């Protein structure tokens, strides 16, 4: 990598920092991500032995993620397809296979499909409230995760995961194990830094028992659909099945390999489940925390939600949700303050000329530090403050598109971003319509974040006291 201004940080210094600082801040902090002096559009650092270009200028972010996407269409994660049934998931696919399958998979999240999912989401919100009514103090992440698990399983796969109601739900059990420990982070970072070692060590996306669980769920669901003639269902699972059956758009012509085989279904069931419950579950918990910590915001939100519910006979339709504009701002601000993925990964595929004349060569990894951008006071004054008004129409129109990246932007944006926003709105609207939320004394305020998790998480449980309104 050559860039006129950006000097990569020294390898030794980085290793020294690595030993003594929290992983989150090593990789994604202002210092690393700023990549040098104030005012630089991008910089670089050595991620152990690998030079990484770090881009923090919103205009350059938009060039890389949107207008010049053809140079950066890959994420650069590594998998071992031959012996990992979870390898062919959308997050890990790159190049031609990704281009082939992405359009079909995203069609399941179109607005007309989302509309039809709202009654189902609301049914799970009711169940959540029923369980909450048994407690005066709740663990926000627990309830949020369980709601998201049931919603994802039901809306996308037609499966009843019973996470909310059944304390022994197998889906909840497996969900807790997926990101427990460091298996996933180690797989991502070893694959990213040392692909040959990753292959040699036959590293996999998940531990064997988790892979087996999703293989069994896929088989059972396929058998059920066949025996009960459910092939007319129009959910995400059926899209995966029809991609396998028709093989349309699924053959990677460059390598001649079949992309959409049975492993493809297992891999995407696994990845849409994991990405689906975990990120939304965490944001749901962060919103509950912020509402409990900011009572005035909670009051404004409750007034809006009750007014709209009253207008729509207490039914949460798509239109009702659209009318909750303050709720929209609260969800947007939570996604600003808690950018779950912290950083967007890309790999340069075709040589790229930076605006300052520097050349990015193919193979160079690029990181876009959403977290550092979301905390840059130039774009978000007083960034630690939770302020939904940052997302008023006026404030949004003043901000650069590249300064708000919770879901990414461009052709590789989170395919389920609207689904995630709708499920969060249903979850939060129903909770604030029934309960006043207060922080339990044992919950840290300001909230401390987990230093080493791959996804942004609270360090300790977010406990909240409930009072019926
Ligand atoms: C608040 C919730 C969520 C957040 C903050 C979030 C965030 C993100 C981000 C930042 C990316 C990477 C974008 C990029 O590289 O440019 C991503 C990709 C992805 N997300 Fe989400 N996501 C959320 C919910 C979901 C849900 C509910 C699902 C599935 C049901 C999902 C499935 C995926 C998949 C499959 C990808 C990979 C897309 C690709 O590579 O083409 N996400 N998400």
From TrEMBL:
Keyword Heme in record: yes
Keyword field contains Metal-binding: yes
Family annotation (Gene3D superfamilies): Cytochrome P450 (1.10.630.10)
Pfam families assigned: p450
Subcellular location: Endoplasmic reticulum membrane; Microsome membrane
Membrane topology: Peripheral membrane protein
Family, similarity comment: Belongs to the cytochrome P450 family.
Cofactor (UniProt): heme
Transmembrane stretches, start-end: none
Protein name from the UniProt record: Cytochrome P450 CYP6FU1
Alphabetical UniProt keywords: Endoplasmic reticulum, Heme, Iron, Membrane, Metal-binding, Microsome, Monooxygenase, Oxidoreductase
GO molecular function: heme binding; iron ion binding; monooxygenase activity; oxidoreductase activity, acting on paired donors, with incorporation or reduction of molecular oxygen
InterPro entries xref list: Cyt_P450, Cyt_P450_CS, Cyt_P450_E_grp-IV, Cyt_P450_sf, Insect_CytP450_Detox
Binding residues annotated for heme, in chain numbering: 414
UniProt GO cellular component terms: endoplasmic reticulum membrane
Function (record text): May be involved in the metabolism of insect hormones and in the breakdown of synthetic insecticides.
């Amino acid at each position: 990598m050559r860039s006129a201004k950006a000097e990569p940080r020294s390898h030794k210094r980085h290793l020294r920092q690595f030993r003594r600082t929290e992983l989150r801040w090593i990789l994604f902090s202002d210092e690393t991500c700023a990549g040098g002096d104030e005012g630089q559009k991008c910089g670089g650092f050595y991620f152990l032995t690998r030079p990484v270009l770090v881009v923090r200028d919103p205009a350059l972010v938009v060039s890389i993620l949107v207008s010049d996407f053809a140079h950066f269409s890959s994420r650069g994660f590594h998998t071992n397809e031959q012996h990992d049934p979870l390898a062919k998931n959308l997050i890990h696919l790159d190049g031609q296979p990704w281009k082939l399958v992405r359009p079909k998979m995203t069609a399941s999240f179109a607005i007309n499909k989302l509309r039809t999912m709202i009654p189902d989401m609301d049914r799970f919100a009711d169940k959540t409230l029923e369980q909450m009514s048994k407690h005066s103090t709740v663990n926000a992440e627990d309830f949020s995760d369980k709601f998201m698990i049931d919603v994802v399983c039901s809306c996308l796969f037609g499966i009843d995961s019973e996470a909310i109601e059944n304390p022994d739900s197998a889906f909840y059990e497996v969900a807790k194990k997926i990101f427990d420990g460091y298996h996933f982070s180690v797989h991502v970072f070893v694959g990213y830094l040392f692909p040959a070692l990753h292959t040699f060590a036959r590293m996999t996306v998940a531990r064997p028992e988790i892979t087996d669980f999703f293989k069994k769920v896929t088989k059972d669901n396929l058998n059920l659909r066949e025996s009960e003639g459910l092939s007319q269902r129009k959910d995400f699972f059926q899209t995966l099945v029809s991609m396998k059956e028709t093989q349309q758009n699924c053959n990677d012509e460059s390598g001649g390999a079949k992309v959409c085989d049975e492993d493809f279904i297992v891999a995407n069931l696994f990845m849409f489940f994991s990405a689906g419950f975990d990120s939304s579950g965490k944001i749901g918990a962060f919103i509950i925390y912020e509402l409990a910590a900011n009572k005035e915001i909670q009051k404004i939100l409750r007034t809006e939600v009750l007014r709209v519910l009253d207008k729509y006979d207490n039914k949460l339709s798509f239109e009702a949700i659209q009318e909750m504009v303050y709720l929209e701002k609260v969800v947007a601000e939570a996604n600003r303050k808690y950018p779950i993925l912290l950083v967007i990964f890309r790999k340069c595929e075709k040589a790229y000329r930076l605006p300052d004349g520097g050349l990015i060569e193919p193979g160079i990894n690029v990181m876009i530090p959403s977290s550092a951008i979301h905390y840059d006071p130039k774009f978000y004054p007083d960034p630690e403050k939770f302020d939904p008004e940052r997302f008023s129409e006026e404030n949004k129109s003043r901000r650069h598109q590249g300064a708000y990246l919770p879901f990414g932007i461009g052709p590789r944006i989170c395919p389920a971003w609207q689904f995630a926003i709708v499920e969060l709105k249903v979850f939060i609207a129903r909770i604030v319509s029934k309960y006043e939320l207060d922080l339990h004394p044992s919950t840290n305020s300001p909230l401390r974040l987990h230093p080493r998790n791959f996804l942004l998480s609270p360090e300790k449980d977010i406990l909240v006291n409930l009072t019926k309104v």
